[in-house]
Fold this sequence. Notes:
The protein is of the alpha/beta class. The chain has helices at 2-18, 23-29, 163-171, 288-292, 301-305, 334-344, 368-380; strands spanning 44-47, 51-55, 60-65, 71-73, 77-78, 81-86, 98-100, 107-108, 121-123, 130-131, 144-146, 153-154, 175-177, 180-183, 189-192, 199-200, 211-216, 222-223, 236-239, 244-245, 258-261, 267-268, 281-284, 307-310. The strands form 6 sheets. Strands 1, 2, 3, 5, 6, 8, 10 and 12 form an 8-stranded mixed sheet that branches. Helix 6 packs antiparallel against helix 7.
Amino acid sequence: xxxxxxxxxxxxxxxxxxxxxxxxxxxxxxxxxxxxxxxxxxxxxxxxxxxxxxxxxxxxxxxxxxxxxxxxxxxxxxxxxxxxxxxxxxxxxxxxxxxxxxxxxxxxxxxxxxxxxxxxxxxxxxxxxxxxxxxxxxxxxxxxxxxxxxxxxxxxxxxxxxxxxxxxxxxxxxxxxxxxxxxxxxxxxxxxxxxxxxxxxxxxxxxxxxxxxxxxxxxxxxxxxxxxxxxxxxxxxxxxxxxxxxxxxxxxxxxxxxxxxxxxxxxxxxxxxxxxxxxxxxxxxxxxxxxxxxxxxxxxxxxxxxxxxxxxxxxxxxxxxxxxxxxxxxxxxxxxxxxxxxxxxxxxxxxxxxxxxxxxxxxxxxxxxxxxxxxxxxxxxx
Length: 382
């Protein structure tokens, strides 16, 4: 355990000196990462020829790599227990050239493989749920990332400084993978996030000086930390489904004049508007009584300056989009798959009521890959 502690301390010191992300950003990121609860917090240390691990009563966590490892293959089990997590900074600055993650791992911790400059490709297993902030930051050879066919939550700057992210930005400045908005920091002007997006990563638009307005669909319930942190020229934002507004979402957005917020809002973090000196009009799609029940800092200077408008009859429809419902009958079933097949075969008189609902991989087009994903989705949700 001493080796691990020394390595983690050394890495954090190096990260503070060399990382392109300000230390303030790194510090606030710690406030928003989910903590997975297990039945038993007690563990014992173990090791293989390639890595050290923590053995709990019901699972294994990879805690640190050995310096000699180049080709890292993580097993699905150790001592008959599933390997479920790769923890913080396990292989930062290491010389690994390949990484194999088993189908048991559900999350990868902060900085896990940051600055691994020899790592060229990555396949996230179907079990993956969350890849934390800066996990693969500055992996300057990482040009290929294969995601499972479902939403994987990412943190702030998870893939920053990778050729993969730059390639995705060239395709579309809104980097969307399976319903998750990974990055929007290269967007310009007025941006509308498509309704297929269910999750927006921390810091998704952070320090974007070119974005002027953003509309986030009703499908996104959590406005995560630092979404618009220091967006100097952001004038308006619509948060059509927001139930929670987290730390630093509008920090230092000093030109913001118009904010529209869902009437389903439940809480606003006390630091959501830190360093914000603007005066805005906030349109709340609910009653004044509902607004007063929102968990927030009543003495927040930004909120006290704001002009409040209450519009309980406005805002987006409360009807949720059904994924895969391309014929708009309110459900996703075999009829949608049949319709999409006919459309792909260019059969006459085939029309799609909502083609975006069938864009299962959120790449902005309909292909046979979407049909395959739709069939699987229907099968899994019978």
